[in-house]
Amino acid sequence: MPIATGFVLLFAIMFPGQAAEPSAAGLWQKIEDGKPVVWVLVLERDGIFEGVVAKTFPLPGEDPNEICAKCSDDRKNAPLLGISFIRDMKREGLKYEGGNVLDPRDGKIYKAKMNVSPDGQILTMRGYWGISLLGKDETWYRLPDTSMASLDPAIVAKYLPAQAAAIKPPPVAAKKSNAPVSPAVR
What we know:
The chain is mainly β. The protein has 3 helices and 8 strands. Strands 1-2-3-4-5-6-7-8 form an 8-stranded antiparallel β-barrel. The protein starts with a helix and ends in a 19-residue tail after the last helix.
């Protein structure tokens, strides 16, 4: 065994968990029937993870400005685009537990947990009623960071203010006119 490999192995044995595990934070896509259904932005604030609807893909005839009419908490009548529908997730390695998820179709709130794949490319979100056995999994796929550019600027400004400030266009300078100047103005 080469010396460098030996040091890496020794380091891993002496300091388990020191290697950076992938995080749920980032932009995820849910796909149904081969088509995107929703993009979810997962954020971490002070060790608590939250998920917001970052982009929707309404089918023809569906309202692109749908609201959560059946919600009964602070999200009542909030637009679905930008709604915080996953809340209070606490990280334990690749697992996230102790949170809840809102089903905006009926306004019901379920207990929730999430798992990130070891390679960080798949997120499994499980909403359940009572115990985890009484629930349903959804599989989401990580989108590249470049996909953030496709998000509504209002979503970025609300949930990622530092990034919004960094990509804010410079102020527009007064345009020089090519019109001839009148002799009376000179």
